Amino acid sequence: MAINGECSAKAHFVSDVPQGTVLVPLVFLLFINDLPSQVSPGTITHLFADDCLIYREITSEEDQVIFQRNLSALDAWAKRWGMRHAVQPTKIHRSQSPFSKSYELSGVTLEEVEHAKYLGITLSNKLE
Question: For each of the chain's 128 residues, which pLDDT tens digit applies?
């Protein structure tokens, strides 16, 4: 496309989704459809629009290791598909548990919170 006889430089895009169409949500869901298959059995994922919730009941040190391995697998999945996690809003919501391992995503230690908001619902570690 040219404006007043001037053209912008060509640019190569690794991935692209047409913006502003009714197909965007469908294309995105197809794109991330295999994300839940990256985690091990016993770890639950919920996808909603561009949000992913992952959780696992931690009853042993082995569960902690598995959960970190799942976070690493999701990070590898994102890198493989040319995506990045929004690490800043990512939080660890821990219910009352004797286990207190820190978890990392993309090399960043995730913040632990007592209350977390998900889809308009506030989750509390005391189920209040």
Answer: 567 778 777 766 565 555 666 777 777 778 888 888 999 999 988 887 777 888 888 888 899 899 999 999 999 998 898 887 776 667 766 666 666 778 888 888 887 777 777 777 777 766 55
Write down the pTM of the prediction: 0.70
**70 touches 81 (CB < 8 A):** no
Report how far residue 69's alpha carbon sits from residue 44's, in angstroms, rounded to the nearest whole number.
Answer: 14
**Nearest Cα residue to 50 out of 78, 13, 92:** 78
Cβ atoms of 110 and 103 within 8 Å: the answer is yes
